[in-house]
Amino acid sequence: PPRLDVVRLRQDFPILYQTVHGKPLVYLDNAATSQKPRSVIETETRYYGEINANVHRGVHTLSQRATDAFEAARDTVRRFINAARHEEIVFVRGTTEAINLVAASFGQRLQPGDEILITEMEHHSNIVPWQLLCERSGAVLRVAPIDDTGELKLDEFARLLSPATRLVAVTQLSNALGTVNPVRQLIELAHAAGAVVLVDGAQAVAHRPVDVQALDCDFYAFSGHKLYGPTGIGVLYGKGALLESMPPYQGGGDMIRQVSFAGTTYNDLPYKFEAGTPNIAGAIGLGAAIDYLNTLGLPVVAAHEQALLAAATAQAMQIPGLRLIGTARDKASILAFTLEGVHPHDVGTILDLEGVAVRAGHHCAMPVMAHFGLPATVRASFALYNTAEEVDVLMHAIRKAREVFG
Ligand code: PMP
């Protein structure tokens, strides 16, 4: 199988060429946000330097160019997740806004006694919007538990589905554990119960090829910035008929057809859900990020990251006092752990002194921390530009933290 030429492709990421505390930067906080290739940075610069104008309004040339580039980016996203139709791709701020959009709009059809099913491993952004919706609607939030390896308990998930379940919201890849959920199977179970399914793809899109038609999910949400694209841009995919049937999310320019004080009619999809001037540069930058990833090939990237994770896991298991948090059979890109006798934040600080950027904290998944009885973990997360040498540096730094505090 083809292999990634990591030495060459690292040159596409200017930020990687710096030292931190006198040590070469080893960036392993990719689950929080990924670095951007030069093509993405240059695409945004070129947009502002050459074609900046507002979209969908102007008859003038720049406005048409900006509109064409913006809509071309939408089509790049459509192809990337294999959505059937252009209008099923709604640009939003990120995963968080995508989920809040569904909660605000689709959520209006929920009634007292209806149920929303999530899992114990969700990110706060796939918990809190549903709690707020339950407060508004009288619906009830159900939570499918995980086991001590960080896998979803499938039998419990199936047992919690009922005719009352209106919506299932589940992550494809846990940012705190690395667990990859069998979303295809979960969606089938949920559909059999008559529920609509939202997949949180914030972590998954950068690490696994996604085909929303093959998954048959009703909604799919992700952020550009974890996919080597800009911050402030993300995507909500929704099945056309479903989006069509939903009321608008925010009101404003671009989402209307006709406005009068007697009443307002709404624009076609996807514009009905895109009130106001969008993040035009961000959308075009996201398109460039997807183009970049496509030239490498996501399966090749995934194989590379999987090899790094396997090497890191094997080495971590040799470190006395290190406890892996998240040992699911199907896992991707994330190595979370604790170190006996050392607070995760202290581990993070020592690692930073060695140039190694990791995250220490609850990872916006406090229920996961609660499950394992921990205040926090240390999380290293891998991306396409990481190397086996960087895994070695990470392990060396962890051993150093043990020595300092041990
Ligand atoms: N879901 C998951 C699984 C995530 O990892 C994240 C980001 N950490 C989010 C949702 C939220 O994404 P954003 O902050 O980009 O909206």
TrEMBL record:
Pfam family, one: Aminotran_5
Domain (Aminotransferase class V): residue spans on this chain: 26-394
MF terms (GO), sorted A to Z: cysteine desulfurase activity; pyridoxal phosphate binding
EC number, UniProt record: 2.8.1.7
Gene3D superfamilies: Aspartate Aminotransferase, domain 1, Type I PLP-dependent aspartate aminotransferase-like (Major domain)
CDD domains named in the record: SufS_like
Keyword entries, A-Z: Pyridoxal phosphate, Transferase
GO biological process, one term: cysteine metabolic process
Catalysed reactions, as listed in the record: (sulfur carrier)-H + L-cysteine = (sulfur carrier)-SH + L-alanine
Needed co-factor(s): pyridoxal 5'-phosphate
Organism domain of life: Bacteria
Function summary: Catalyzes the removal of elemental sulfur and selenium atoms from L-cysteine, L-cystine, L-selenocysteine, and L-selenocystine to produce L-alanine.
Entry similarity comment: Belongs to the class-V pyridoxal-phosphate-dependent aminotransferase family. Csd subfamily.
UniProt name for this protein: Cysteine desulfurase
